[in-house]
Design goal:
It is a single chain. The chain has about 750 residues and is of the alpha/beta class. The protein is built from 31 helices and eleven strands. The strands form two sheets. The protein has a nine-stranded mixed β-sheet, sandwiched between helices. Helix 17 packs antiparallel against helix 19 (about 515-535) and helix 19 packs parallel to helix 26. The two termini are about 30 Å apart.
């Protein structure tokens, strides 16, 4: 364990890099949240503004569409995301690793933390089988600490009022309520008791705990909302329910304590930068104990230790332990549990009521049930040496070896919420954007009609025509340079595929293989390697086709050409993604089906090695396919002369490789123009569909282009659109809102990567 501290430092440094990414994402999310808030305010303004009614007096349905854009789903997703993001940011900001101990009361949690931290019962309360811990504590290892002390954080007054009201809601079902600390002091407990009958078992059971707050809130009232620095001798007064060694002396300050951070120097310096987290035992009568435990394991814990001490009364697993495991696993996910959730079986020596005979049975039960735990540990919690060896060592080693994978799990869980949040944000952005489709009045359309016509005929269709006539038509009979270079490089593989002399000798040393078998195996291996090498050329083709599609889409998207990027920016999309999103956003298949078919023909265009070349390569490999040859090469050396045989085989393989190389080279030269021919054909098909489709129909593709541009005037020519309104302030406010959503509508901004 001597390098645990160094390894934990490395984990913390790695978390620092992730923390920076989390903070960047948090800023992006905050900007998106603000844009939704502004949209909400704009909706409220539009609902009561006469100016907006005037702006859309000819299109009143626009105002109804704006009112109908729902933002509740975004706020719900944002709340879930922000909560997880905040906790992850806090976790990755920590400079130490947290180990939490959970379980029913009296299972040895406090005892084991005493042995790790070196603290006594006067600081970490413990008792045999009963509730003793009153408040959640964390024990921080500080190698520079010269004494033991604690930072005691108290609940605020509002938090205390909320706690008491929770009891009152459960007991009186709303009949009683407090609004101040004084109200708590004056609660009529006897009246509450009298209002309950014997059948109200749960309500009667909560009365004693509520009564503690009523009787003792004055003990800590002046500390509410504060943080106190407390020395070792007084710590138990704030974290324990009674005095160590004297159960008749009871404490009640713990009722007001939110968290006790106990700081000390651990006995073992190589324990590293760890923090022990002591939770209140499950089974304590306080309301919310289970919820607090689950919050702790999810948000405060890098590793979780479930304590269980079998005995004669509980020799087997009970529903309590199974319940806790299922609850924790569900909260932190089974994947996390299998990495950082440990089940500790507390062994007890004979002097204290030996339970070793029960351990094997319980461990077998855990194994048979396949619970989602990292390890099952057997530890005598009263023995400091065994605590170090059987608990601290394996847990810290697991932490330092696997915490990176666990942190990745946490980030992935956050990103799942980020994807949901983005979907809701994109839905608002898209809905708000679509609100203005067709919103342009006849005056605006009439004013922009010449520009629409020029954009369609000159900037789109003429540019596409120039692209296929001036660039790709002259190229279609010429070799595609990028493809030809890549193919020539792959020719080298033919000779490189010849097995080494050592490999051939190893084949010959197999007693079942003769000279000819070895040669045949070599050719089999060569064929596979050569085919694989040429199949790799698909990556080259994919890149060539992607660049071609981007070239075409730039004509549609760029502001100097078709300007459709104002409807949907290209951003980091692939051509396929942009086309799909554009068709979806503009409802292209329903409203402009001929344009949709043209775009889909471009999207689906592909070319691959399997389709036009691989059969030629296969034919060229006949010379090294013994199953197709009437006779094979002759080997003069005997099998006893393995090196000589290997040399002869290599000579033959080189001769065959030369023939394969020449045939493939000839075929490649014939095929080098195929990519250019295919691209020209795809471009010409796209142009024909975009320019001529429907010429014999009532609605032509040209009509659809005009409809598309008129419907989306507000996005394509935002500034000119605004200038045609007398109510420029309102028009500009709407356009700015659309622009803000468009700028922030980026899925990558919602993902920590």
């Amino acid at each position: 364990m001597e390098d645990i501290t160094r390894r934990i430092d490395s984990i913390i440094a790695t978390r620092g890099a992730s923390l920076a990414k989390i903070k960047n994402t948090a800023q992006s999310i905050a900007a998106c949240y603000n844009s939704v808030r502004k949209f909400e305010q704009l909706k409220a303004k539009i609902a009561v503004s006469d100016n907006y009614k005037m702006l859309f007096q000819n299109k009143p349905e626009i105002l109804e569409r704006i009112a109908g854009v729902s933002i509740k789903e975004f706020y719900d997703a944002y709340q879930a995301y922000e909560s997880k993001l905040k906790h992850l940011e806090e976790r990755f900001s920590r400079k130490e690793l947290h180990i939490s101990f959970i379980g029913r009361a009296g299972q040895g949690k406090s005892l084991i933390m005493q042995n790790i931290s070196g603290l006594g019962k006067n600081v970490i309360p413990s008792s045999e089988g009963g509730d003793c811990t009153g408040a959640k504590s964390i024990i921080t290892n500080n190698s520079n600490a010269t004494s033991v002390h604690a930072k005691i954080e108290f609940f605020s007054e509002n938090e205390m009022i909320e706690i008491v009201n929770t009891y009152l809601d459960r007991i009186s079902h709303g009949s009683f309520h407090v609004g101040s600390v004084n109200d708590i002091k004056n609660l009529p407990i006897n009246e509450l008791k009298a209002s309950l009958d014997d059948s109200q078992v749960e309500e009667n059971g909560l009365i004693p705990q509520l009564e503690k707050y009523v009787k003792h809130i004055g003990d800590f009232e002046s500390d509410l909302g504060k943080i106190k620095d407390v020395q070792e001798k007084d710590i138990e007064k704030y974290v324990a329910q009674f005095k160590n060694g004297d159960t008749s002396t009871k404490y009640f300050n713990y009722l007001g304590v939110k968290l006790a951070n106990i700081i000390c120097k651990f006995p073992k310096a190589d324990a590293g930068k760890i923090v022990l987290v002591d939770t209140i035992g499950i089974g304590d009568t306080s309301i919310g104990t289970e919820d607090k435990m689950l919050d702790t394991v999810e948000n405060d814990s890098d590793a979780i230790i479930l304590m269980f001490r079998p005995d004669s009364l509980r020799p087997r697993l009970s529903n309590d332990e199974i319940y806790i495991v299922n609850k924790v696993s569900k909260r932190i996910t089974p994947d996390y549990s299998r990495e950082m959730f440990f089940w500790l079986l507390n062994k007890v020596t004979a002097a204290k009521g030996e339970n070793v005979r029960f351990i094997a049975e319980v461990k077998s039960q855990i194994t048979d049930r396949n619970f989602p735990v990292a390890q099952v540990l057997e530890v005598d919690c009263s023995d400091p040496a065994e605590v170090e060896k059987q608990l601290l060592n394996p847990v810290l080693n697991q932490l330092t070896n696997r915490i990176g994978a666990v942190d990745e799990l946490l980030i992935n869980r956050l990103n799942e919420l980020g994807e949901k949040l983005y979907d809701e944000y994109a839905a608002i952005a898209s809905a708000f954007d679509k609100v203005f489709v067709g919103a342009a009045n006849d005056d605006v359309k009439r004013a922009l009609r010449p520009e629409i016509k020029t954009t369609i005929n000159t900037k789109i269709l003429n540019s596409l025509r120039d692209l296929y006539i001036k660039k790709y038509y002259p190229l279609r009979e010429k070799p595609c340079e990028e493809w030809a270079i890549a193919g020539k490089e792959k020719l080298k593989v033919i000779f490189n595929a010849i097995p080494s002399k050592e490999r051939i000798i190893s084949l010959l040393e197999d007693g079942t293989i003769n000279q000819h078998n070895a040669g045949e195996i070599c050719t089999d291996l060569m064929r596979i390697e050569i085919i694989n090498a040429f199949l790799d050329l698909n990556f080259v083709l994919d890149n060539i086709i992607k660049n071609f599609k981007i070239e075409v889409l730039n004509i549609l998207i760029d502001d100097s050409n078709g300007r459709l990027g104002n409807i949907l920016p290209f951003a980091d999309n692939s051509p396929t993604e942009w086309i799909d999103k554009f068709i979806d956003k503009t409802e292209c298949q329903n409203k402009y089906p001929k344009i949709a078919r043209a775009l889909l023909s471009l999207r689906d265009f592909t070319i691959n090695v399997q389709g036009f070349m691989i059969y030629e390569i296969r034919t060229s490999l006949d010379v090294i396919d013994f199953s197709l040859l009437p006779q094979t090469f002759e080997i003069n050396s005997s099998l006893a002369e393995k090196e000589a045989v290997a040399d002869e085989i290599i000579v033959w393989l080189n001769s065959y490789a030369e023939k394969v190389h020449n045939k493939v080279d000839v075929n490649l030269r014939k095929l080098n123009s195929v990519p250019n021919k295919a691209i020209f054909a795809a471009l010409k098909d796209f142009y024909d569909r975009a320019a001529y489709a429907g010429k014999d129909e009532v609605v032509t593709v040209e009509d659809e282009w005009h409809d598309l541009y008129e419907d989306w005037i507000s996005a394509i020519w935002a500034e000119k659109y605004k200038s045609h309104f007398s109510l420029k302030v309102q028009a500009e406010e709407l356009q700015n809102m659309i622009a803000e959503f468009k700028n922030l509508n980026n899925e990558e901004a919602f993902i920590v990567s």
